[in-house]
C-alpha cells in the first residue's frame, strides 16, 4: 500500500506544470502556444522572461527532489527502492501530466532534481555533463540527453546499482521525449543555443 501511495504522491507532485502556471500568472501567455509548445524552462525562456525560465527550471527540478525526500521521510523502510520509485513517479508526472492531457515536458530538469536528491554526486555529474555539452556544442537538447544518459552510468560507477537501473529507465524516457530533436540532430537542423530560430528544445 505504501508503494502505491508513493507513486500517486510522486506523480501528482511531478504533474504540476510550473512553466504553464508561471507564464500565465505573470502575463507571458499560454506556454503551450509559444515556441515548441513544451512546458519546460527552455520554452519559457522564449517568452523573453529569464526570471520565469530560471524559476521554472528550479521548480521542475524541485519536484523530483521533493518526491525523493518525502519517500525517505515517510517510508524509510523502503530504502533506496522507495526513493527511486517516488522520484521516477514525479518525472513521469512531469512528462505525462493528467491535467494537460498527458502532454508535458521532456523531463531533464526533474530528472536532475531527483538525481541530486538520490545521491548528490550523481546529480553533480549529470549537471556537469549537461552544462558542459551545452557550452561546448551549443545544443540544449543534446546537452540534456547526454546528461540523462550520464546519470545511470555515474550511479553504477559510484556504487548505486538500484539507482542505476531506475535512472537508466528514466533516461530512456528522456530520449523518447526528445525523439523529434534526435531526428533534427541526424538531419543537421537542430537549432543551436542563441540562434534566432531556437524553437525546438
Regions with pLDDT < 50 over 5+ consecutive residues? 196-201
State the helical fraction. Answer: over 70%
H and E order: HHHHHHHHHH
The number of E-state strands comes to 0
Q: Biggest sheet, in brief?
A: none
Distance between the termini: 38 Å
**Residue-averaged pLDDT, rounded?**
91
Oligomeric organization of the protein chains: single chain
Report strand %.
Answer: under 5%
Our Rg estimate from Cα atoms comes to 16 Å
Shape field: globular
Structural category is mainly alpha
Query: How many helix segments?
Result: 10
Secondary structure layout:
Elements: H1 2-14, H2 18-25, H3 41-45, H4 50-74, H5 79-95, H6 108-118, H7 120-137, H8 140-157, H9 161-177, H10 179-187
Helix pairs in contact: 1-4, 1-5, 2-4, 4-5, 4-6, 5-6, 5-9, 6-7, 6-8, 6-9, 7-8, 8-9
Amino acid at each position: 500500500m505504501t508503494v502505491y501511495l508513493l507513486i500517486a504522491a510522486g506523480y501528482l507532485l511531478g504533474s504540476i506544470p510550473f512553466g504553464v502556471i508561471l507564464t500565465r500568472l505573470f502575463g507571458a501567455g499560454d506556454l503551450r502556444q509559444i515556441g515548441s509548445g513544451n512546458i519546460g524552462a527552455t520554452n519559457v525562456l522564449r517568452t523573453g522572461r529569464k526570471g520565469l525560465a530560471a524559476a521554472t527550471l528550479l521548480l521542475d527540478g524541485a519536484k523530483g527532489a521533493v518526491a525523493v525526500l518525502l519517500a525517505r521521510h515517510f517510508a524509510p523502510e523502503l530504502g533506496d527502492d522507495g526513493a527511486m520509485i517516488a522520484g521516477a513517479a514525479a518525472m513521469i508526472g512531469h512528462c505525462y501530466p493528467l491535467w494537460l492531457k498527458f502532454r508535458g515536458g521532456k523531463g531533464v530538469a526533474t530528472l536532475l532534481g531527483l538525481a541530486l536528491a538520490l545521491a548528490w554526486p550523481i546529480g553533480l555529474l549529470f549537471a556537469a555533463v549537461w552544462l558542459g555539452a551545452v557550452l561546448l556544442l551549443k545544443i540544449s537538447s543534446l546537452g540534456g540527453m547526454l546528461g540523462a544518459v550520464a546519470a545511470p552510468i555515474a550511479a553504477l560507477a559510484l556504487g548505486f546499482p538500484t539507482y542505476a537501473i531506475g535512472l537508466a529507465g528514466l533516461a530512456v524516457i528522456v530520449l523518447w521525449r526528445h525523439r523529434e530533436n534526435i531526428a533534427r540532430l541526424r538531419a543537421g537542423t537542430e537549432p543551436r543555443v542563441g540562434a534566432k530560430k531556437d524553437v525546438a528544445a
